[in-house]
Amino acid sequence: MQLDSQKSGRHVRWVSTVLAGFTAFGLRAAIAQAQGPAEQNIDVLDDNVQAKLQGRSQHFLPGGLSVEMDAGTSAVGTGWAGYNSASSMPVFNATAEAWIVPRVSLVAGFGSTPQPGTGSLRAQGGARVLILDQGRHGVNAGLAFVYRQDRFTNEGGMLECSAMMSRRWGADMAIANLAYAQDGEGDDHEGEIRLVGVHDLGRGLHVALDNRVRTLLSSSDPHRAQHSNPTLEFNAGPLLAYTVGRFALATEAGVSGQKVDRLRAGVLVLGGMGASF
Questions:
Q1: Which pTM value belongs to this model?
Q2: Which residues of 133-152 are buried (b: 16+ CB within 10 A; e: fewer)?
Q3: Residue 210 · residue 235 · CB < 8 Å
Q4: Which domains does the chain have, with CATH numbers?
Q5: Angle at 261 between CA 264 and CA 8, to 5 degrees
Q6: pLDDT (tens digit per residue) in 9-66
Q7: Per-residue b/e over 243-259, b at no fewer than 16 CB within 10 Å?
Q8: Which of 125, 144, 183, 192 is an S-S bond match for 188, by CB 3.0 to 4.6 Å?
Q9: CB neighbours of residue 164 within 10 Å
């Protein structure tokens, strides 16, 4: 047990060092961008931001994964509701994101917890930093740091750090999100990978394939089972969205799974709406 704790401690320190380095780089880029001429506040090229707004994927993807920039957008709000039969629980999420400088945004909202018996909606809040943009570097990339109370609600919530990447090829876009998280007590560590493919059909219609897996990396918490924290979660399925200007409606349905004491499979059904300003 002591050896496992030492390994976990080294792992956490290594991840923290890497994330701190990326954060410093991202903030430096954001400050430099903000201090540039006004007409260069947002460096957008045709490859990254279309002249005609097609509906940025922050409008209609649960979790707002895209790190594309949009010169005409300073804030985005989304709301989702549905049901996950694998956990036999309703699912709710609402998020607002506002860009305080061109490459840095603040995120706030709330989400439902996957832990049975822990009740209602819990707060979330954090920041996202854009590090690379497709126009200059061939790919969009950024980091997000979010404090979430919807997970590990009995242990002071959790801190989640994620690296996001996306690439657009005309009407197609691929998105990848890799996240690391630990609870408030520092004795539970989780990882998540999410892969999304999006295709713009035209006339405001979009289809996507959304895939997510979240798993326990390590734990030294002797009471984890009593808190009913899942050790594995996944969902995969298609998404259909319709955007009109700055507004969007979307629905997603697919398979889902959750493991607490044993693995349970089911169906996840979601409906959502979003807007940008």
A1: 0.78
A2: bbeeeebbbbbbbbebbbbb
A3: yes
A4: 2-37+58-276 (2.40.160.40)
A5: 115
A6: 444 454 445 444 444 444 444 444 444 443 334 343 344 444 344 446 767 887 766 6
A7: beebebbbbbbbebbbb
A8: 183
A9: 24
